[in-house]
Fold this protein.
Amino acid sequence: MIKIMLHPEVLRRLAVLVGLLMAVWFYLWPAEYVYSVSLVDFRAAQQKERWKDDRNMPLDQYMAKKVEGRLKQVSGPQWQELLKAMLRAQNGPLPEMLQDRLYTIGRGYAKYYYFGPDDEPMASVGMPRDGYTYLTMTMDGRRYFMGLSSQLYRWASNAPSWLLYPTRGYAWVPLLLGLLGYLFIPRRKHPEGAYTYGRFSSQIGPDILGLLFAGVFFGLPLLIIPDNSDIWSVFNFDGGWTVLTLIFWGPMAACGVALLGVAARYASIWLQVGAKDFTRASLRGVEHFKYSDIAKAQPYERHAPRWLVWGLMFFGAGNPTAMGQALLIQGNIEVGWELHLRDGRKVRIMINSLEGAEKLPKAWAKAGVRVEMEPGKK
């Protein structure tokens, strides 16, 4: 197994697969929560109250009622800088420190500014991950109030995407490294004149489908769970989301990994008809079969396993990609040659996309191997 895993064709696909999955994770992984802060005008807020008693009570009593049990005093140069910026933004251009953080419904409405949980000065408040509190600060002899809200990801749709997805900007790094590994890990050279499988049909095509399949189903839990659960974890046992993750990451994404394995297998194979023996290279190494040890060569046909077809149809119900693959492989027939060795072993060689496959039986016959043209019994 170690020998197989260290084969260049396996390493190439392992590099691009890991790079892709890390890129998907970086791109879709959301922040658990974000902060929004705004200036609070209690006088204006009181006039908009629904109940008459609230609208008519003295302003001091109204303020005391609103902030009761949830008022924190803040201070320091960072809070002063933020407060000054928010005050300037009320009637002027947006200061640099608030660029790309603003959300407002429109003119006349409060302006909300979003920050990450680790951004200063918000990190010093010690807010719970889902709550609201009032902040008060005295500056230049005047007392100001701010409202600070901690919003879970699923309720923070108005926040800028660079805050909601803090690692998204780095997603290109693992993807690029994976592609570089796929393109530049040296491939083993095969002898001149060797038979090999078609590059696109047996290698590049399965690689693309495998990466697409693995990437899509790996990313689906990252898209679905955060939007529907307050406890953000792909293995959230309390919410039952673990089952969804295991289905998408298990049989569904595994189909994509299997396709990459198929591509690695056929990329590693080369065949050569020599003067004294027949040579086959694969992920397991290079094998030599003397012509005197080959009893006969016989064609064979094999249909796709039913369990694979039904598995794709069952787990991919409602998914066009999975259903399409199931229908595609259902009609696929593998054809090839089977070498019957005198010690009882059988060596199968698929020729569906083998370049120059029509020359093999003639070369074997010329070397003294008995070649039968009728398929053997299944």
